[in-house]
Amino acid sequence: MIDKTRIIQAVLKKLENLPAGHYLDLRTYKRNRSVLVVKESEDDLLVIERGYFHEKFHIRADKLSKLLKTLLKKEFPRSQKIRLYVMGEFTEEEALNVERKII
After folding, report:
1. 95: number of Cβ within 10 Å
2. Extents of the domains making up the chain
3. d(C-alpha 93, C-alpha 70), whole Å
4. At 54, phi and psi to the nearest 5?
5. What confidence category does residue 92 fall into, taking pLDDT thresholds of 50, 70 and 90?
6. Dihedral Cα 39, 102, 82, 55, nearest 10 deg
7. Could you please report the per-residue DSSP string of 74-89?
8. Residues of the chain with pLDDT > 90: what percent?
9. Distance between CA 25 and CA 23 in Å, rounded?
10. Contact at 8 Å (CB) between 45 and 39?
11. In this predicted model, what pLDDT tens digit does every residue of 23-71 receive, in sequence order?
12. Using N-to-C axis directions, what is the helix angle for 64-75 and 7-17, rounded to 10°?
């Protein structure tokens, strides 16, 4: 679990080493809301918001920090710690149906 104030830097660092086609899963402490960051290529990302709102964003890698800042305010307003999972190959059907224990 990573402190909310350092999560954006942690995501950017993990994305540098992540191969194309793999993704990161950010979840609240209770694991009931999530934001998926899929690395489609070196410069293109797909961000999937699943929580209070359900949206998809296709963005350039340099726009990620600004988007994450707004998504963290919307999806994790009271969270102080955020879970960060490094996942494998992204297939939309499997990624959206990952079951995690909800506290």
Report:
1. 18
2. 2-60+73-84
3. 26
4. -125, 105
5. confident
6. 50
7. HH-SS-SEEEEEEEEE
8. 76
9. 7
10. yes
11. 999 999 888 899 999 999 999 999 999 989 999 999 999 999 999 999 9
12. 130
pTM of the model: 0.89
Q: How many residues does the chain have?
A: 103
Q: Which two tokens stand for residue 95?
A: 């990624």
Which DSSP letter does residue 6 get?
G
How far is residue 31's CA from residue 102's CA, in Å, rounded to a whole number? 5
- In 5-98, where does DSSP find H-type helix? 7-17, 64-75, 92-96
Contact between 82 and 11 under an 8 Å Cβ cutoff? The reply is no
Mean pLDDT (the chain, rounded): 91
Q: Give 96 or 36, the one with higher predicted confidence.
A: 36
